[in-house]
Amino acid sequence: MEDINIIIEKLEKEIATLFSSESSGHDIYHLKRVFNLALHIQEKEGGDKIVIGVAAFLHDIHRIIEKETGKYCSPKDSLPKVAEILNLLALPEEKVKAILHCIELHEEYGFTESGKTAEDIESLIVQDADNLDAMGAMGIARAFSYGGARGVPIWTSDIPFDERIYDEVKNDVSEIHHFYSKLLKLKNNMNTKTAREMAEHRHEFMEKYLEEFFAEWDGKK
Question: At a CB cut-off of 8 Å and minimum separation 6, what does 122 contact?
Fold first, then answer.
């Protein structure tokens, strides 16, 4: 079996063009960060390194399909495209199945109507890695990048925060609303001990950012 870094080099050459015009925070740099986070967690929590690494690097193919079609695409709907890319690696069939499984389940959250179904450590680690990159300074930057790309306003202060069950299919009314519907809930949604520890600081950073944001909003501070 090839080294995971050699595999990722092959994958990057294959998908770099697909992600070259991505501007919603799901670019190739996001994939690299999630890959690095996933392997960091895997070193402490276990699991199949190849499955986790490849799944982490290919988890957002559905975002490219969304951009091309202008319609929501679930991770499950992206699996045929992911399988095409995986064919280039000649991985064992059981690893391909495991990678596709991780990608299909990576956007499960405990605070949605469907909840979580993943039980295997590989899927749980990929979920944690992706969610960690949606938190902290990087998460803030990505949130507003996503809002700008999708035409979502920074904040609509006249609309109250709604503690409804989060719906991945719909955009929030503003990106600040998105913090409350999703991002601030991620700390308690982590699966592994390693990710829970890493999430603490990132969560605190977002809380401090929001305090400063609201203090500056009216331009009086």
Answer: 47, 48, 51, 52, 55, 98, 101, 102
Phi, psi of 135 (to 5 degrees): -120, 170
Please name the residues in contact with 193: beta carbons below 8 A apart, sequence gap of 6 or more. Answer: 44, 45
Task: Check if the beta carbon of residue 185 is closer than 8 Å to that of residue 111.
Answer: yes
Q: Is the pTM for the entire model greater than 0.90? A: yes
Q: Which single residue is written with the structure tokens 């400063």?
A: 212
**pLDDT reading at 1 higher than 70:** no
Name residues whose C-beta falls within 8 Å of residue 90's C-beta, 6 or more positions apart in sequence: none
Query: pLDDT of 56-69, one tens digit each?
Result: 999 999 999 998 99
> What's the full length of the chain, in residues?
221
165: DSSP letter: P
- Nearest CA among 55, 182, 183 for reference residue 120: 55
> Could you give the CA distance from residue 106 to residue 139 in angstroms, rounded to a whole number?
17
Query: Tens digit of pLDDT for each residue in 42-56?
Result: 999 999 999 999 999
Q: Which amino acid makes up residue 139? A: G
The SS3 assignment for 56 reads helix
Architecture of 4-216 per CATH?
Orthogonal Bundle (1.10)
| CA contacts within 13 A on the Cβ side of 58 | 35
Report residue 109 as tokens: 């959250």
Distance CA(213)–CA(62), nearest Å, equals 32
156-162 contacts, C-beta under 8 A, 24 or more apart: 157/217
Nearest CA to 125 out of 192, 73, 70, 177 is that of 192
